[in-house]
């Protein structure tokens, strides 16, 4: 169990967990390893995941009368649940245990949705190569999206061994960030040992970063092997046959558990991000602008532009701050619209049921 991230013994058990466990005396804890349209896979050990039947309310679109089952209240990869019955055919999820962290993403489609893409994660390694892949703006974006999730971000700059890798210049470019930054050769075990503080017993970690950044290389080195089978999770693979070589929960020799979920590849703001927290340096300057709605473009008395001119803050970081602020504001608008529609539907349903009750008596 510890190999899949379990680290709770009765004295450290959250009272909410203890309550749920007491309410299901036949059940035992397990961890969601994969989420598919057709259902969940859960793991009780690191070697195997099995399909588990979930609660009917997590499968339905949600009944408006009982209150909608929000996407956030359904299990996601990394969640601890209580299961009953035996694998492989009779496993059932009976409860979702409250999570201590959740990385969410906004999924803008026809309807605004929020999804939890990884739960109960301790640390996210933001992986970026010290080559053409090096992009402080992308790192800022990841930090914004992870901010507020309860997960500790750590920036891992790979390819420090390569010709032309300028660690000093990269650290200088990232100086405004208030998170640990490490430069490593992802192929070298001694170098990767710098990540040990975040890889202790029962720790859960995820890796994010663009293609080619070195995530698989890092994973293999942490595992102490040369190569990893990175077969993608098969899509459209319905009932039963989940024979992927892909492992969603990877136990590391250090005692930590690495969670690999495709959801981490594409992160969009949910609208709840607090841009000011990820860009505290710019926010502090903006507080000194003459106009409190200053966009830091051509306004007189702009403290942010003055700081750019003095070379104290990076113009591109400011540009990214504005771009991400707009993106978050756009998502926040969609979120507000959705919440208003929900509230509206609730009022209308109430009125409708009242009319039915009046006409036909209590139903
Ligand atoms: N020299 C050197 N090469 C590295 C390092 N990290 C990654 N590479 C090389 O960079 C290439 C891409 O690395 P991967 O580990 O496959 O990148 P990834 O992030 O897993 O990419 P995707 O699987 O596409 O998401 C490979 O050829 C690695 O050998 C490093 O620290 N030093
Ligand atoms: Zn300004």
TrEMBL record:
GO terms for biological process: ribosomal small subunit biogenesis. Keywords: Cytoplasm, GTP-binding, Hydrolase, Metal-binding, Nucleotide-binding, Ribosome biogenesis, RNA-binding, rRNA-binding, Zinc. Residues 119-265 form the EngC GTPase domain. Its main location: cytoplasm. CDD domains: YjeQ_EngC (cd01854). InterPro entries: G_CP_dom (IPR030378), P-loop_NTPase (IPR027417), Ribosome_biogen_GTPase_RsgA (IPR004881), RsgA_GTPase_dom (IPR010914). Binds 1 zinc ion per subunit. Monomer. Associates with 30S ribosomal subunit, binds 16S rRNA. One of several proteins that assist in the late maturation steps of the functional core of the 30S ribosomal subunit. Helps release RbfA from mature subunits. May play a role in the assembly of ribosomal proteins into the subunit. Circularly permuted GTPase that catalyzes slow GTP hydrolysis, GTPase activity is stimulated by the 30S ribosomal subunit. This is Small ribosomal subunit biogenesis GTPase RsgA. The lineage of its organism: Bacteria, Pseudomonadati, Pseudomonadota, Gammaproteobacteria, Lysobacterales.
């Amino acid at each position: 169990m510890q190999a899949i991230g379990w680290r709770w013994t009765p004295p450290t058990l959250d009272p909410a967990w203890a309550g749920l466990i007491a309410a299901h005396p036949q059940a035992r804890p397990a961890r969601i390893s994969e989420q598919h349209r057709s259902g969940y896979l859960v793991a009780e050990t690191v070697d195997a995941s099995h399909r588990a039947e979930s609660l009917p309310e997590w499968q339905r679109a949600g009944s408006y009368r009982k209150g909608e089952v929000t996407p956030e209240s359904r299990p996601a990869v990394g969640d601890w649940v209580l299961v009953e019955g035996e694998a492989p055919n009779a496993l059932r999820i009976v409860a979702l245990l409250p999570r201590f962290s959740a990385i969410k993403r906004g999924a803008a489609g026809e309807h605004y949705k929020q999804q939890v893409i990884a739960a109960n994660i301790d640390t996210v390694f933001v992986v970026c190569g010290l080559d053409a892949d090096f992009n402080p703006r992308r790192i800022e974006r990841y930090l914004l999206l992870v901010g507020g999730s309860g997960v500790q971000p750590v920036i891992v700059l790979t390819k420090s061994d390569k010709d032309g890798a300028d660690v000093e210049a990269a650290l200088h470019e990232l100086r405004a960030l208030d998170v640990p930054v490490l430069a490593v050769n992802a192929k070298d075990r001694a170098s990767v040992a710098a990540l040990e503080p975040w890889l202790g017993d029962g720790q859960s970690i995820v890796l994010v970063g663009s293609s080619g950044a070195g995530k698989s290389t890092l994973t293999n080195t942490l595992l102490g092997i040369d190569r990893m089978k990175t077969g993608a999770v098969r899509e459209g693979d319905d009932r039963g046959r989940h024979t992927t070589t892909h492992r969603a929960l990877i136990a590391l020799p250090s005692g930590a558990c690495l969670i690999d979920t495709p959801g981490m590849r594409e992160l969009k703001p949910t609208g709840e991000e607090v841009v000011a927290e990820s860009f505290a340096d710019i926010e502090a300057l903006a507080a000194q602008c003459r106009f409190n709605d200053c966009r830091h473009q051509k306004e007189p008395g702009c403290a942010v532009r003055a700081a750019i001119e003095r070379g104290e803050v990076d113009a591109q970081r400011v540009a990214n701050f504005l771009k991400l602020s707009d993106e978050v504001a756009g998502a926040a608008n969609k979120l507000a619209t959705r919440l208003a529609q929900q509230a509206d539907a609730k009022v209308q349903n109430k009125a409708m049921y009242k009319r039915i009750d009046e006409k036909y008596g209590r139903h």
